[in-house]
Design brief:
Shape: globular
Structural class: alpha+beta
Oligomer: single chain
Number of helices: 16
Distance between the termini: 34 Å
Largest sheet: 5 strands, antiparallel
Order of helices and strands: EHEEEHHHHEHEHHHEHHHHHHH
Number of strands: 7
Strand order of the largest sheet: 1-5-2-3-4
Strand content: 5-15%
Length: 381
């Protein structure tokens, strides 16, 4: 029996809970047009046994070699011993038999991979889900890992709370960490944990937090937490990059801010068409601020579908910046997407639960809810 529907009617947490309580075995697929992404989760008797997200593939090679636990030579030798067509399970078994990596370490890595994919999916508030029952024998899985869905739901709720707590110091993953200046009254010794020292070795003034997470083979969430601790204790500072990128940069382009400033000036002078062209030209250099301005101008031109699309791009590029979700909510209302608007405002409130804009978002949610109720009552009448 297939179970399917939009996430705006049955949230992803509710879907997981339903499959857990009914002890389902099969495959859950979740698609999101907003993110242009798809996730797959396999359940066996209500427990999650495998999960992946298309935009964040994690191969066996990367899983085993991250952090230097297994060398490329060790991996190649294990594949050679297993012969052509060896499965991932057989290769990891060969590595364990050769005592290159421990069984417990493999289990931990597999669980981390599974959890990372599930927690990514649990952050989605829009999209479409579909579950198809399948025999357990047909599920792609590694028998060494099976995780309680209830524990995943509890950990996901904890992470959401923690993200909202650290957002005041770590606004997004595109910020670049740099070592803070040492004052005269600052103690000469740093009492840091091993994972904090490890992150400090990656700071070069070029890589952003997402880039550091990828280079270290750790999740974005882990690195954001480490950065929060280091910022709080005054060890590092976070800088907003002039160019939104996780790859190495040389000298920042001095025209970046100028291009965006010219767009704002043109808009202030009433030349909306010129402002739109300049704002779009500034997107590659200035990222989210340019996209937000572009969407605002498109709204003034009553090209609301294009404004929504521009903001959806901004969400994909910068999912942890609250303003993007706030503006997307109001743009969605303009095209009649009330469910999408509400989902965007709710996401905004998770990232920025206090302040004047939070009150504005809550008022907007209440207004849309009343409007939808009136529309439904009119349709029934």
């Amino acid at each position: 029996m297939a179970i399917e529907g939009p996430l705006r009617e049955l949230g992803i947490h509710d879907v997981f809970q339903l499959l857990d309580l009914s002890r389902k075995t099969g495959t859950l697929r979740v698609t999101s047009e907003l993110r242009d992404d798809e996730g797959t989760v396999h359940f066996d008797n209500g427990r999650v046994v495998q999960a992946s997200v298309r935009s964040k593939p994690s191969s066996l090679d990367r899983l085993l070699t991250k952090g230097g636990r297994v060398s490329e030579a060790d991996l190649a030798a294990a594949r050679a011993r297993c012969g052509p067509g060896a499965t991932d399970v057989q290769v990891t078994d060969a590595l364990i038999e050769a005592r290159i990596i421990a069984q417990r370490e493999v289990e931990r890595l597999l669980r981390e991979q599974l959890e990372a994919a599930v927690f990514e999916l649990m952050s989605w508030r829009e999209g479409f889900f579909s579950f198809e029952e399948r025999p357990a024998s047909e599920l792609p899985r590694d028998p060494r890992v099976a995780v309680s869905t209830e524990s995943l739901l509890m950990e996901s709720a904890r992470r959401i709370d923690e993200w909202s707590r650290i957002a005041d110091k770590v606004p997004n993953l595109q910020v670049i960490p740099v070592l803070a200046a040492v004052s005269d009254d600052h103690g000469p010794q740093l009492d840091l944990l091993p994972h904090e020292w490890e992150m400090l070795t990656m700071i070069d003034g070029v890589l952003d937090l997402h880039g550091i997470a990828s280079a270290m083979g750790r999740s974005d969430f882990e690195i954001a937490k480490v950065a929060y601790g280091l910022v709080t204790t005054g060890v590092i500072e976070l800088q907003v990059p002039r160019r939104r990128s996780s790859v190495a940069m040389t000298v920042p382009d001095p025209s970046e801010d100028t291009a965006l400033a010219d767009a704002r000036a043109a808009l202030g002078a009433g030349d909306v068409v010129k402002a739109l062209g300049l704002a779009r030209a500034a997107v590659g250099a200035s990222g989210t601020p340019a996209r937000l301005l572009t969407a605002r101008i498109l709204g003034q031109l009553e090209r609301h579908d294009e404004a929504v699309e521009e903001l959806r791009h901004a969400v994909r590029d910068d999912p942890l910046t609250p303003r993007v979700h706030l503006d997307l909510g109001f743009a969605a209302v303009r095209i009649g997407d009330f469910a999408g608007a509400r989902a965007s405002w709710e996401h905004f409130l998770r990232l920025a639960p206090t302040g004047a804009e939070a009150a504005r978002a809550r008022a907007a949610i209440d207004t849309v809810a009343r409007l939808v109720t009136l529309m439904e009552a009119h349709a029934d009448g």
